[in-house]
Structure formats: C-alpha cells, structure tokens
Amino acid sequence: MVEIIIRKGSLLVLTFIILFQSYISNDSMVSLIILLTIILLSYFLVPLVNKPIINYLIIVSVFLIYVLLNHHVEYLIILLCFFMVEGTLNLKTRDFYFFVLSIVVTCMIVTVLNYLSFTSLLLVILLSICAVFLHQSISVSNEKKVLYEQLLLQYRKIKRLSVEQEELVRAEERTKIARDMHDSVGHKLTALLMQIEVMDLQSEHASLQNIKQLARDSLEETRSAVRQLKVSETSGIQSVIQLIRKLEMESHLIIKFTLEKGILSIPISNTQSIVLYRVLQESLTNAMKHSESKEVEVRLAMNSLQHVQFSVKNKVFSHFPLVEGFGLTNMKERLQEIGGDVRMIKTDDYFVVEGTFPLRRVEQ
Fold first, then answer.
1. Cα–Cα distance between 79 and 11 in angstroms, integer?
2. CATH superfamily of the domain spanning 236-358
3. At residue 354, what are phi and psi to the nearest 5 degrees?
4. Where residue 38 falls among pLDDT bands split at 50, 70, 90?
5. Which residues have CB under 8 Å from 5's CB, separation 6+?
6. What's the pLDDT band for 193 if we cut at 50, 70, 90?
7. Count of CB atoms within 10 A of residue 193's CB?
C-alpha cells in the first residue's frame, strides 16, 4: 500500500511541476493539459486492460506528437522516464523491451530534430539500461515467489492427504478391533460364563462364584471397550464433513452446508466416503481457483431411489468457457467406480457440480 502511494504521489508531483513550469514559461496550457490528461488516463487504465503495452505506447505516441507540435520536451522527458520505470512492474518481459526501445527511438528522433540535447539522450539511454536490469531482477524475484507458493501449496496438499489417509486407516483399524472383540472375545466370554453357570448348578464349590463373577466383569469390560471404540469412531457422512471442515479452515473458505433429513445416519462404506470426500475436495479446489468469492454452498441429500445426492455451488465473476480438465475427469472416473455420475452446470452467475451414487451396504 505504501509503495502504491509513493508511486502515484510521485506521478502527481511531476505533473504539477510540469504544469507550473509551463505556466511560468507562458507556454500553451491547453495543449499541455490535453497531453497530460491523455497520458494520465492511459496510465490509470492499465490495471483494467488485458494488454497494458498498448496504454504505454499511447503515452509515447502522444508525447512525440506534442513535442513535434509544440517543441517543448525538457520536463516531459522526466515524466517519460517515470513511465519507463513503472513499466518494469506492469509489463511482461517482451512488452517491456519493446516499450523501452520505443522510448529510446522517440528520444533519438527528438534529438535529431534539435528539440533534445545529446546529453539528455545519453541520460535516457543510461536510465533505459538500468530499467532493463531492474526488470530482470523483478522478473527473477517474481518467478521465485511463484515457485515458492507452488511448492508451499504442494506441501500443504501432501500433508493434508497424509493426515486424511492416516485418519481413514485409524477408523478402519478401530472398526476392525471393535468387531473382533465383539465377535471373538465377547462370544467366548459369554460361552465361558454359560459353562460356569452349568458347573455352578452341578457343584457346591464356592470358588465357582468367584470365577463366575470374574467372567462377568471381563465380559462387561469387553463390551465397554467395544462401545468406547465405536464412540471414538467417526465414519460415513460425518467423517466427510469433518474433513471438509478442516479443508475450510486451511483454505479460508466459507462453506455453507445444507444437510437433508436423515443424511447423517445413512451407512455408506469407507470406499464411498473416500470418493465423496475427494469429489467435494476437487470441487472446492476449483471454486478457489476460478472464483473470487470465498463462499461455497454444499448440499447433501438422499433421494427416493436410495441414492446419495451432492452439489457444490459457487459464484463466478469471469465468463470462462467450461473445459473439463484433469480434475473434473478424475471426479467422473471416481464416481463411476462406485456406480455414480457427476455433471457440471455453468450459468452467468454460478458454477455447480452435481452428482449421485447408489447407497450400498457398509463393507465388512
């Protein structure tokens, strides 16, 4: 912000100096004001155009026309050099070199016409060389910054995938342990308790009472451990929502969930949970890439055919054509593997990803 204020402030100061000098010299103020108006208008419109080089070339052209008509160039050269330095920040490498070349050629033409001294021309050339080196330094710095951001994004993505995979593995392990304890240990303890009951009826030994109580305590502890494992386990739609909430915090998105009645209790398999999460994750990633809005609507429901329905809706501000890249193609393939499908809908205001997949029994 401070940098922008300094740059814009320097431009305004240069403009007032030129106007003041022209007023003292009794030059034509009307033509100078028209010149400065066109130059300032072209400069401030640079952020709004796709090819800023056109605006900078307009500045050079207007400058040359004014000099040829009025033969005043001294203070305007300073303004032209200011835009050359500005071009190091706003122009791509090829466009910048062309712009600098146009300034040097223009100053040479003015020098040949004896409107500019040879010393001033040398200063412009020297400044042009400095500007080229400055532009190269800025380009290298920007490339390093982009590379760093890409590496950081990949690191966060890999780290998130690792955590998600670990949580899914833990959930499967908890489920397996709970089932094994219930089916194996629990059943054997129940059988042991029944045999002790039979022995207790056939014998008068008091020690059997202690053994029976020990078996009861062991069975109760086993059941308690199974309940704790099931309580700590988050599966199905709830696990998907938890993972999406973590993604929401990491990406600074605002996700509005709409959950239809009964959707949280449906028994979807681990495979279906993973596919649903990956599809929602890819849809949210697309929303972050192609939408300036940070708000995304996610809807989960179940239709009358016992199919899970989902939709991801976000606003769009740019009218880009709908192109199915790797991410969208991957979503289709994932859903096809579990018998589902996905479709993309683009309007003038929204981009929507909708899909369904059949509800099946939980994998054992």
1. 8
2. Histidine kinase-like ATPase, C-terminal domain (3.30.565.10)
3. -120, 145
4. confident
5. none
6. low
7. 16
